[in-house]
Amino acid sequence: MGSPMLFIYSLSKGTDGHNIIFMKKFLFILLLGLFNFLPITIQGQFVSYNQIKNGNYTAAVYYSSTTGQKSTYELIVTVTNDVVTAIHFGNNGSVHSGYNNSGYTYSGGKLSFSRDYQGNITGASTTVKVTYPNGTTQYFQIEL
Length: 144
Known about the structure:
This protein is of the alpha+beta class. It has helices at residues 4-12, 18-42, and strands at 55-65, 70-80, 83-88, 94-96, 105-108, 112-115, 121-131, 137-143. Strands 1, 2, 3, 4, 5, 6, 7 and 8 form an eight-stranded antiparallel beta sheet that branches.
């Protein structure tokens, strides 16, 4: 039995065109089969490229609302995978991503990082937008 490359080469030498069509189909199926197995070999592997550790951080939070209210607070925020996923208020209240009983929509929160000349993180910031069913929108500009 000859090598696979010799087999493919012999298919390409046909004069009637049928062997060339067969060879193209054979190569297509071969490549398709190889690509089907690639996800299996890397399935289940998760590589985290977080810039900072997941957890709670003290942050300066600049609040503004479509009602005209503006305030500045020092609050605890929860960071998960470089995204602010919750803002905790001092009264045990919070706004957070995911399901909530108040019907608001939480969006934003992806952190942008500032670095020094050595590449060390010197700060992080983001904006979170919370929109309520009554049309009121709150903005939280967050700096870690």
